[in-house]
């Protein structure tokens, strides 16, 4: 980390835990370059697609409560969706990124229009998620943010509550993740880091993005390393989800994608000769 810092190519926080104990926690670089405010371990960062595992957890909680079927077609929960595609795609297909739906964030006007606009998630989906399937559901893996956007709408339809409220009631409050939430651009969020882009000419401010509306249930969260450690602890307990349903959530499907997680076995992990199962997911969003 020090080497990366010396070359000015990393800015952020790191937490390492082993056997339930934090063995390393440190922050590097700058949270706000214009005021030269340094990152601390309670700096809040956008976590991008790491948000997907929270959406997947809520769906699994609804499944555990008998309120949703993973094998049901999505027309059951999204009656407005396209008749043909909606009766082919199941909730499982959305969770495992095997639906065949194109990725709406790949649209040429995503950054110039969608990302900077405030809109209602349901209205946006009804208007834009009408594209024909790229492949038959269940036959291939394709990472599509559209899948997890729709899962957020399914959560809202089943619970009758906004996605953010369900997120807070079902996960953040029980896990005591008090420094995590939806990144609303108009809210004052203490200790929120600014985002930067590293270029050949040095750092630049990242472009504006309305996280709450444009990424919704597929990427809108912010968090801290301490809160993500609490999340990790919650995943190792059974208060949020039973062991049986956690096994289902972490079962890899096509191309090692489980439900909001990539799960794969590495036979020679870090050249140690040990076989290790990794349960991981990256996140990337403007400036982070």
TrEMBL record:
InterPro entries: AmpC-like, Beta-lactam-related, Beta-lactam/transpept-like. It comes from the Bacteria. Residues 7-252 form the Beta-lactamase-related domain. This is CubicO group peptidase (Beta-lactamase class C family).
